[in-house]
Amino acid sequence: LQNHEFVAQLSQFSSVEQLMNANENLGTLQMMSASQSNTQVAGLIGKDVEANGNIMRHTSEGPDQVAFELDSPAKTVNITIKDATGKIVRTMELSDLGAGTRKEAWDGKDLAGNMMPTCNYKVEVTAKDAEGKDVKVSQKFTGKVTGVRFEGGVPLLEMGDTTIQIADVIAVREAGGTVP
């Protein structure tokens, strides 16, 4: 090899070695960042979380709240509560509701007036305006974070027997704090 070719190859080897070191350092930084994020998510355990979704957990601690948001005023709002098998447990009809966030109480009873067992229920909320057109409804639910698990590097919040993605979280509050 000519001297200038030899020096050029040494320079290339040096550049490759520096790139490999930089790549290794970036991998370490990525791992440290993920660990820090995981630690922060674990700090949600014991907190009350409000999230997007149509789940409601019926407990013995008092009336359950069906939470939803109407994009515009609604002439009629229908709330359907279903058990895990999809069977309709209860329906509620409301009228003349303004736009905004709403919470409606469910006494935990089925259509026949029997108290339902403590478990998760699926809630469907539909709304129509005065002209009979659909009103956009966003459903929400609240619960206490009881654990965190990681699947494929993605943190999932456990709320009793319900699991949600961190991306669905709208608000986090101290346990027992008021949720608007």
Commentary on this structure:
With 180 residues, the chain is an alpha+beta fold. The chain contains one helix and twelve strands, in the order H-E-E-E-E-E-E-E-E-E-E-E-E. A five-stranded antiparallel β-sheet has the order 6-3-8-1-12, with no helix packed on it. It has a four-stranded antiparallel β-sheet with strand order 2-7-4-5, with no helix packed on it. The model has no long low-confidence stretch (mean pLDDT 86).
Please give the largest β-sheet: 5 strands, antiparallel
Category by helix and strand content: alpha+beta
Side by side, the strands of the main sheet go 6-3-8-1-12
Secondary structure tally: strands: 12
Rounded mean pLDDT score: 86
Low-confidence blocks of residues: none
Helix content: 10-25%
Give me the Rg, rounded. Answer: 26 Å
Strand content: 35-45%
Instruction: Tell me the series of helices and strands, N- to C-terminal.
Output: HEEEEEEEEEEEE
How many angstroms separate the termini?
Answer: 76 Å
The number of helical elements comes to: 1
- Described by the principal axes of the CA atoms, the overall outline is elongated
Write the layout of secondary structure elements.
Layout: H1 3-42, E1 48-52, E2 55-58, E3 64-70, E4 74-82, E5 88-97, E6 100-106, E7 119-128, E8 137-144, E9 147-151, E10 154-159, E11 162-165, E12 169-173
Antiparallel strand pairs: 1-8, 1-12, 2-7, 3-6, 3-8, 4-5, 4-7, 9-10, 10-11
